[in-house]
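2024-03-11 09:14:02 INFO queue: dequeued item Chaperone NapD, len=94
2024-03-11 09:14:02 INFO validating residues
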Amino acid sequence: MPERALRYHISSAVVATMPARTGAVLAALAEMRNVEVHGHANGKIVIVIEGTSTGMLGDRLSQISLLDGVIAANMVFEHVEEEMQGHDGRIEQA
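2024-03-11 09:14:37 INFO prediction written
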C-alpha cells in the first residue's frame, strides 16, 4: 500500500542569447546541476531542467535568465512524473 507520492518535474526551455556570448552561456549551462543542453543554433539553446518541484525549475530558469549574454529564457513544457513509495520502501509508478 502506497505511503507517499514522490514527484519529479522535467521542463524544456529555450534560451535566446546574444550570438557573440552563446559559447559562454553554453559553458555556464554545462556547469549547472540538473540542466542539460539538447541543441543550439543561431543564438538559441534548447535545454532540459529537472527537479523535485515547479519552484525549483523556476528558480533555475531565473538564474539562467540572469547570465551575461542571455536575452530571454522561456519555459516551453513541463511534465510531472509521480511515483508512489510504499511502506516497504519500494517505488511504484503511479
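2024-03-11 09:14:37 INFO annotate: The chain has one domain: 8-81.
2024-03-11 09:14:38 INFO item closed
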